[in-house]
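Subject: Protein record for review, amino acid sequence with backbone structure tokens
Why sent: The fold of this protein is of interest and is recorded here as tokens.
Notation: Tokens come from a learned vocabulary of local backbone shapes, not from coordinates.
Attached in line: The record itself begins immediately under this heading.
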Amino acid sequence: MKKIAFFIILLALGAAAGRAQESRQDISVSATGIVEPFMASSTDVQVSANRGFGAMLSYRFMMTPSSALEANYGITYDNKIHYLVSNTNSYLVNTRTQEISFAYVRSFTYKKYNPFVEGGPGVLIFLPIRDQTTQSLDVKQETDPGILYGGGIAYELSPSFDLRAEFRSFVTKVPSMGYSQLDTKRWYNIFYPAVGVAYHF
């Protein structure tokens, strides 16, 4: 009986060790852009924005060799959102946009190339910057939920490092910055291209 119990313990330890060797994690740092589309609405509000730039930190936990869970934090700077109300009143808001998101990642392997697709929930936090660019409207911080989706490709530089390029999109509500007169009552698709380096451990 003792021999059987010992054998079962050895099998369990061997399986756990094998699983530990299979599990993989990585952390990546990327340069990002933000491209918000022009949006018009039935409320006579038109919204447009310049392109912004920022950075993103991501963590992935590999559940299997081809599927992973991912957590992201990103921030972009100096992203100016322009509101035109009834073709007469114009407001410019300089914003800092933060992203907090989670995604399921499905990857595929072809030699040193690893294309992948991803999707999941998240929030965007629009933070007005009170400077000479932001006009007299007393705008407020806004947090909007949304859906992240996209895809990309990773190129393996070594067993520990790879280059990663992604084309990401975030579907969320058009921000009104706390003012009903700026509300389009619409959702739009923000594009987040990203290029970075990942470290596997």
